[in-house]
Design brief:
Number of helices: 7
Radius of gyration: 17 Å
Strand content: 5-15%
Structural class: alpha/beta
Largest sheet: 6 strands, parallel
Shape: globular
Distance between the termini: 47 Å
Helix content: 40-55%
Length: 183
């Protein structure tokens, strides 16, 4: 992973996605101006202009607006990332979190809706209370500046997805459930 590389992959549309971008903009505004970080945003949609306007105060060169990426492009982006950042306002489940963790990225998100179903707080990332921007920024800073923590959480994230969300693990769980019903 590239040092200081924050990654986000999300559509730019009204509702929960826009609310998450607004929260992410608040996080970015609190990151230190002299810190070694940059954010790559993959995504597009009808609210692109409004989303980018949320980040208007961020110094030039800190954010890369990548637009829509194909599957290989997203995989390449995640492979270069250090931390996946997405607040997750109203996230029902969050496949993007699973993709990021499968690529070995620790996650910083809010402990809301379905996010805790896919991100294990303190193990595969850090979940903060809804609206606690300072806690999110502290978590991002801690992961970016502690290489051992970043590696440990990234490795745990990858292992967690393999054990609990990959096809083999799902098949074992489904088999157990079906045996319990049939038995």
């Amino acid at each position: 992973p590239e040092a200081g590389h924050l990654v986000c992959v999300a559509m730019m549309r009204a509702g929960d996605k826009f609310d998450s971008y607004a929260r992410l903009a608040a996080w970015v505004a609190l990151l230190p101006d002299d810190g070694d970080w940059h954010l790559s945003v993959a995504g597009d949609g009808p609210m692109k202009g409004q989303v980018q306007a949320l980040f208007a105060g961020v110094p030039a060169g800190r954010i890369d607006w990548l637009g829509v990426l194909d599957a290989a492009g997203v995989a390449a982006l995640l492979a270069r990332g250090a931390v996946y950042v997405w607040p997750g306002c109203g996230e029902a489940y969050g496949l993007a979190y699973l993709e990021a963790q499968a690529a070995g990225l620790p996650v910083v998100a809010q402990a809301v809706a379905g996010v805790p179903e896919v991100v294990v707080d303190g193990t595969t990332g850090v979940l903060v209370a809804e609206g606690d921007d300072r806690a999110a920024v502290a978590a991002i800073g801690r992961i970016l500046t502690d290489g051992a923590l970043q590696r440990r959480m990234g490795d745990a994230a990858r292992a967690h997805v393999q054990a609990h969300h990959a096809m083999a693990g799902a098949a074992v769980r489904l088999d157990g459930l079906l045996r319990g019903v049939a038995g």
